[in-house]
Amino acid sequence: MATEILLEAREDGELPGRFARSAAATSGVSLRTADVPEWFAQRRRAHEFRVRRIPFAQLDRWDFDQETGNLRHRTGRFFTIEGLAVSAADDPTPIWQQPIIVQPEIGILGILAKEFNGILHFLMQAKMEPGNTNLLQLSPTVQATHSNYTGVHDGAPVRYLDYFTQLDRHRVLADVLQSEHGSWFFQKSNRNMIVETDDDVPLDDDFRWLTLGQIGELFRRDNVVNMDARTVLACAPTVHDEAGALDSDTGLLSWLTTERSRQRIRAALVPLDGLDGWTRSDTELDHHREHYFRVVAVAVEAGNREVTAWTQPLIEPDGPGVHAFLCRSFGGVPHLLVNARAEGGLLDAVELGPTVQCQPAYHVDPLTGQRSPFLDAVLRAEPERILYAARHCEEGGRFLRAESRYMVVEADEHEAPTEPPAGYRWVTPGQLASLARYSRYVNVQARTLLAVINTGAVRF
């Protein structure tokens, strides 16, 4: 007799509702939202945190290669700083060279979920990153490079890692490879995971269970929720009550495929030495016009990390960024204006980004050399049209004080026409959330804003 084969449902129809109930819950089992600042203060008092700039010569086990000038760790692991040469295939004018982080290994960004009193809670960590403006921020349960969790750094084991490596014991709610910053990383991806457990989880002092609603409240505060938590939460299987959209899902995918075919980018790694316009001193690698960013070195002390002291290079931007969605309602359904954005470090060259993604100090996109057509609509928006605004740090493990203002701004037909210019498209939050469940469709800046929306921090 043949063994009966049991089939799984292709989708868990209850899961989006469970996330929605968590987003609506603003009180949790282990910590009130109002008490998070005091918890952070306790963790700062419990551990030594210190970051200071140092000359390149004081980097421990990091060297500039004699042949290429590439900055690398002597073990050959972690990451390297190399050169990148970029040009647009259809127009040879926008050509530039820059340093870029090369880290081909795939890390794990994982948030552990557990149901308490019928509400999903998420195990969040108070984690220090050397590049964060205020050092300590709310992070995923696990935030580890492959070198970290395989012990290359000779540090302590990564807490709670088994929940994300022994998946047969737990339930996977989200698991997707997502890109990192395409302007500063070369083809870098991390595994973004949400895993649910029924286990009794021992609670370390640096960790607390929070609902999505609590995290949404924290999103309204500056520099509290770190980038790695934001990108994971953007991949959550959420539901958006939408009657329709300006574009069908197939039409949206077809448009993005057309943009990827049209905006062809040539990007190749080159030696760090000899980059056009870049000069290395004892303390930094900088562009002679001082635009965009520089490479610096730091010494770090952190009492609650797997390794408590180390040195490393970091990328330091030359000023804050602004990343914003313009939004309008069509047929009673909120829509966001996305940009099919090309970046030299992206594996697929083009991903969906916010309406505006730039450093306002320079105003122009480094790829096209053009000013964003929507920058003024964002910077000059009246307070009543700003649905969301908060400052957030970018990846604090690789970037020094890379802080950006994230915004969602209501627009009108004059500021953001129904038929936008080439490279822009209106999408619903639900369409964007659906794409974020798959690899390399939504860039990291847009995912931050999507996480803000998914957790209820924006009310349309």
TrEMBL record:
This is NDP-hexose 2,3-dehydratase. The lineage of its organism: Bacteria, Bacillati, Actinomycetota, Actinomycetes, Micromonosporales. InterPro entries: EvaA-like (IPR005212), EvaA-like_sf (IPR038153). One of its GO terms (molecular function) is lyase activity. Residues 34-235, 251-452 form the dTDP-4-dehydro-6-deoxy-alpha-D-glucopyranose 2,3-dehydratase domain. It comes from Dactylosporangium siamense.
